[in-house]
Structures are given as structure tokens and as C-alpha cells.
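Hello,

Our lab assistant flagged a job as stuck in the queue for most of the afternoon. It eventually completed. Since we weren't sure the result was trustworthy after the delay, we are filing this so someone can double-check. Below is the sequence as submitted and the structure that was eventually returned. Let us know if re-running is recommended.
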Amino acid sequence: MVETIEWTNAGVVMIDQTRLPREKVFVTCRDYKEVAEAIRAMVIRGAPAIGVAAAMGVALGVEKADPANLDAEFTVICDTLAATRPTAVNLFWAIERMKRLYGTLKGRSIAEIRARMREEALEIRLDDIAINEAMGRYGAALVPDGKSVLTHCNAGALATAGYGTALGVIRAAVASGKKIDVFADETRPFLQGARLTAWELQQDGIPVTLITDNMAGHFFKGGRIGCVVVGADRIARNGDTANKIGTYSVAVLAKENGVPFYVAAPVSTLDLTLASGDLIPIEQRPAREVTEVFGVPVAPEGVRVENPAFDVTPARYITAIITERGVAFPPFEESLAKLVLG
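-- returned structure --
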């Protein structure tokens, strides 16, 4: 599996996901502003990966900060990273975790503060990989043997620190001996399914078939798809789930055709402060992502564009939510709270 993000002496190194699959290029972010721009420009994307990147960005900012003005600079660092993308709650979760640690380090030497912040960011990365592997073990049991799995967008190693959420479930199912193949929606307009999911699965030798987003209904009706597994960027208290735009349509089609629809996400993606998905902020992306494909215009100049990056799938369409602490079934308000609170 590809190394999505790592901490090095030169800075935070991440694979440039905007260049895949045409070329495999790594970029080095040498300060927190470059990390923030990488998140904003989707050089790195996927809710868990964004969280890891934000934690490393905070640590990198502290490494470079003026010790005499550390508190003020720390606030700017956190605010800059938090302003990059509004929907993925893991971003804010990771920043808050770094803030809590910083608050315990008052009066310590600058060397100790920097070391502890760096260690925390590295721990968040390792935790994410372990969480994804645990999620995969829980989810593998739900995947039917001998059928196809449909997934939307990319929720694999590239969207996390490693292994993946939705693709982690698929990888674990294959590792358990199940004979499955994958339908990957292309996921317009940024083509994460075509560029990233198909590439990842090919790297792992897992059979994958790429389809355009508007083909999913055809294959549901034909009976080839045994289940859907997707990731998530934020899950409200009632189970409503924000994921890449187009997920809601897939969920409705799955329900209509009696196909189980599973969401795979770490507990850090749960936002129990929000009663429903109506309260989840939806990021709006630039119009050129819709009017152009790799810089080539595909629409009339000046046409009006709407480009929400995410939609919200109501809980009634979700069969179960797979986390590293177990599988939550409806009613989600009870089951999700139990997973979080124990």
C-alpha cells in the first residue's frame, strides 16, 4: 500500500493525489502554511488523512515558531489549518487534540514542547492505521462472499494514514478468503474513484471495475452488487452521514434494490453535537472543477455552476455504520452514543 503521509526531517511528506494515477509524485511541506494549502487544494484528502495532516501541520508550525511569541503563533497555526475545509470533522478533532496537549505543556522548555507535539502527531498517524485495521475486521463479516461490492469516492489508504476505511473493509474481506470484486464509481467532478480507488485496488491485485456515476442503478438492478461500502466525513448523532457528493444517490438506489448500504468510519468522524445531518456544513468547491477536466473545458464559458463537495445521506438509508469499536445498527442515536461513551 502507498505511504500517504509521513513526518521527515525535511518536513511533512505526502503523495500528491491530484497527480495520480498519471504520475506518483511526493511533495514536502516545510511549514504549516504549506500543509494548509495542501489540504485546501486536495493534494491530500479524505477525512482521516486530513486529520493526520492537520496534526502534523500543527507540530510543524510549533517547530518553526518563535519561542518568545509561541502562544499567539500557536493560535494562528490552528486557526489557519481549521479554515481549510469545513465538512470533515476529523480535521477539527485532530486540531483540538493538539490544542489539549499544548495546554498541558505550559512552563515546559521549547525543546520539550516541540518534541511532545511531534510525538502526538506521529501517534495520531499510527492510531489511524490501527483503527482502520480494526474497522476492517469488523466490516469484513458483513461483506457477502461471491458478490460485487460498490464503493463511491476514495476511502482507502490514500484517504487515511494507511489501509483505509471502506477499502479497509474490502481488503479485510479479501484477506479472510472471500471472493469479491469491486465496482468503483468514477466520482465526478474530482474523479477520486477513477483516479484513486481504481489505482489503489489495482496495486493490491483486487479485481476492480470502473463505472461512471450514472451507471450504478443499472448494476444494482442486475443483481450483481452484494453490498455498498463507503467512507464518511462527518456523521451526526442520528446517523445522517456526510460523504462525497453522489453518495446519497447511491444509497437511495441501494435501498430501492434491497442492497445493504454500509458506512465505514472511525469514531472520530462521529459528531454527536449535531442532532441531524441538516446541521453539517457543506463545502462548496470552485466552478472550474465542474467546467474543466484536467484543464480542458467541457462546458460553455460563463455557465452557472453549483459544486457542493459533499451530500448528506439520511440515516434511514444506512444499514449499519462500521467503526473500530464495533458495528452500529439502527436506531443510531442509541448505538452510536454507546460506541462513543461505552
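-- support follow-up --
The delay was a queue issue, not a problem with the job. The result is valid. The chain has two domains: 5-132, 138-341. The mean pLDDT is 96.
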